């Protein structure tokens, strides 16, 4: 699972650091990864990190076989809202978050983390 670099985060902030953002998360688990990911979610939910950075889970659901894009099936699909891009960057740099982020990294074989903003 690729790790976000300082360059990635700087480029992400350049778009508009104070604009709200909803991140599309497409996740394919490593073998045995679902249980580890659930540990990550538990820690995320109980650590206070989500409240500190105003994180909202807009939607999370199990993925199923795609209707188009053959072979692009995902195990988990989530939309996660942040008050701003800066909130997201501050969260991933927070030492409390970093204490348990390894659970996510170990759980995920492949992922897409796509920032979105309202289009309509």
- What count of domains describes the coordinates? 1
Radius of gyration: 14 Å
Sequence of secondary-structure elements: HEHHEEHHHE
Helix-strand makeup class: alpha+beta
The overall strand count is 4
Sum up the overall morphology in one term: globular
Content of β-strand? 25-35%
First CA to last CA: what distance? 32 Å
InterPro entries: Dimeric_a/b-barrel, DUF1330
Protein name: DUF1330 domain-containing protein
Organism: Mycobacterium yunnanensis
Domain DUF1330: 35-111
Explained architecture:
There is one protein chain. The protein has 6 helices and 4 strands; from the N terminus they run αβααββαααβ. By secondary structure, it is α+β, with helices and mostly antiparallel strands. It has a single domain, classed as Alpha-Beta Plaits (2-Layer Sandwich), CATH 3.30.70. A 4-stranded antiparallel sheet has the order 2-3-1-4. The longest helix is centred in the N-terminal third of the chain and has 14 residues. The protein starts with 5 loop residues before the first helix and ends with a strand. The mean pLDDT is 92.
Which terms summarize this structure?
4-stranded antiparallel β-sheet, 6 helices, single chain, Alpha-Beta Plaits
């Amino acid at each position: 699972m690729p790790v976000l670099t300082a360059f990635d985060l700087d480029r992400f902030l350049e778009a508009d650091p104070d604009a709200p953002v909803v991140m599309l998360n497409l996740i394919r688990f490593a073998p045995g990864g679902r249980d580890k990911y659930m540990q990550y979610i538990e820690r995320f939910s109980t650590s206070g990190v989500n409240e500190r950075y105003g994180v909202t889970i807009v939607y999370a659901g199990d993925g199923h076989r795609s209707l188009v894009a053959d072979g692009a099936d995902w195990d988990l699909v989530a939309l996660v809202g942040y008050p701003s891009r800066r909130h997201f960057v501050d969260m991933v740099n927070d030492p409390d978050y970093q204490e348990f982020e390894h659970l996510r990294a170990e759980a995920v074989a492949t992922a897409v983390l796509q920032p979105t903003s309202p289009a309509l």
